[in-house]
Task: inverse folding
């Protein structure tokens, strides 16, 4: 057994070493939450302390909560895991705007909810990362694992179409309210303003909260350490699910032989994880240890790094939530010291321990150019590109610009020249494209060595 004092000492030491501003921790033993505590700050500028009830962006932790919803619908016979999703749709999938890229590839007719939950449908993680920024099916559905947010979003569309209800209502009715997750929603709520965490990048720059306005099964859930611990506790007890649904959720659907989880389509094989029988269930990753089966899920977004891993035979588990892009660097030590878990496939998941990370490159120095409001106003509008879900909205805010992707947190843009701008909260820069008549036609985003051109549409 590890004492509370040892837990505190371990966590605070690692947070300081890895430059993690805030961390929420829950430890579950024998099916009970025996330790629940928050460390550090939810706002480093004002030194406001993080609490177990501070609102976090869950990132991809939502996928397992969404999977739980799907399994409840399976129990109610609203959905069949093995019925092709084509049978649930009002029209062929390529006739929906978001899926017109699949026209001509009949393999979409083979895709099932089971494939989408187990990440075996053949999709990329996101189409924006593909060579042409279009959605493709990259392998025969059901034949191998490739993590896919696109697949989860497709299943969300199917669920909403079948039930005729929006995802937020479904999650409240089937998950959040029954499990008393009172501070959890798929979208930002006014009540969250009282106690929320800012996300921070690797350099400690504040990214603010994510005030999401749309429910997205792949990443929009706002929750707290306390609430998500309730969810994990319920899953360990199979609360709300039939024994068959629970067993199916944790049954290996596909063996994983890829060397890394990301890039999701890398497809480099290895035997390194054969000993732990690394595989994927329905929503959850799986592996085997001397403690028995383990199920796990990570949540990764800019400024947010979250993780949970549980051992159902022992009814034990851990929830780690951080408001920092540096959070993954301390997972290995936390799991080994607090859970005595040396089996999690850290390398496969891409969690490099903080002490093994290369030095961060110094931030680029920018010289601010002061542009008048008339010049800034011409850049305001909406921008989009083929294969890009949603839009970038550029606004003039006083003497500078702000840019917002869909309903994510806006970033402040400062001018470096008449057409070149830089973000104050990331390393991103951009160059606006201006025609001979002075009309702004588009913008080129310079993103970590990639140039992405998007056109102005409004």
Result:
């Amino acid at each position: 057994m590890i004492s509370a004092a040892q837990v505190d000492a371990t966590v605070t030491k690692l947070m300081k070493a890895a430059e993690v501003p805030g961390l929420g921790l829950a430890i579950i033993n024998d099916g009970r939450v025996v330790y629940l505590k928050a460390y550090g700050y939810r706002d480093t500028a004002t030194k406001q302390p993080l609490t177990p009830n501070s609102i976090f962006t869950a990132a991809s932790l939502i996928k397992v909560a969404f999977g739980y919803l799907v399994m409840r619908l399976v129990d109610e016979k609203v959905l069949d895991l093995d019925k092709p999703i084509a049978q649930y749709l009002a029209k062929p999938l390529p006739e929906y705007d978001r899926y017109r890229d699949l026209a001509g590839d009949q393999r979409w007719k083979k895709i099932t909810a089971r494939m989408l939950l187990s990440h075996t449908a053949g999709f990329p993680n996101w189409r924006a990362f593909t060579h042409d920024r279009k959605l493709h099916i990259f392998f025969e559905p059901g034949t191998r694992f490739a993590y896919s947010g696109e697949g989860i979003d497709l299943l969300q569309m199917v669920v909403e179409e079948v039930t005729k209800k929006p995802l937020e209502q479904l999650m409240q009715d089937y998950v959040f309210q029954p499990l008393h997750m009172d501070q959890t929603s798929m979208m930002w709520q006014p009540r969250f303003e009282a106690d929320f965490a800012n996300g921070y990048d690797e350099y400690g720059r504040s990214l603010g909260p994510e005030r999401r306005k749309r429910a997205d099964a792949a990443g929009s859930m706002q929750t707290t350490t306390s609430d998500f611990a309730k969810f994990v506790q319920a899953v360990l007890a199979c609360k709300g699910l039939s024994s068959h649904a629970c067993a199916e959720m944790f049954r290996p659907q596909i063996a994983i032989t890829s060397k890394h989880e990301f890039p999701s389509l890398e497809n480099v094989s290895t035997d390194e994880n054969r000993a732990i029988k690394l595989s994927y269930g329905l929503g959850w990753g799986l592996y085997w240890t001397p403690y028995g089966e383990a199920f796990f899920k990570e949540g990764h977004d800019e400024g947010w790094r979250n993780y949970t891993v549980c051992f159902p035979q022992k009814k034990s588990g851990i929830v780690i939530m951080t408001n920092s892009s540096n959070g993954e660097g301390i997972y290995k030590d936390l799991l080994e010291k607090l859970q005595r878990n040396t089996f999690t496939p850290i390398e496969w998941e891409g969690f490099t321990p903080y002490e093994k990370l290369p030095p961060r490159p110094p931030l680029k120095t920018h010289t601010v150019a002061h542009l008048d409001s008339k010049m800034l106003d011409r850049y305001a509008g909406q921008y989009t590109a083929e294969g890009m879900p949603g839009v970038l909205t550029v606004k003039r805010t006083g003497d500078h610009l702000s840019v917002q992707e869909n309903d994510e947190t806006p970033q402040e843009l400062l001018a470096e020249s008449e057409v070149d701008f830089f973000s104050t909260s990331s390393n991103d820069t951009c160059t606006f494209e201006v025609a001979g008549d002075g009309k702004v036609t588009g913008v080129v985003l310079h993103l970590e060595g990639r140039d992405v051109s998007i056109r102005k549409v409004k």
Notes: The domain at 373-456 is CATH 2.40.128 (Lipocalin). DSSP finds ten helices and 21 strands in the chain.
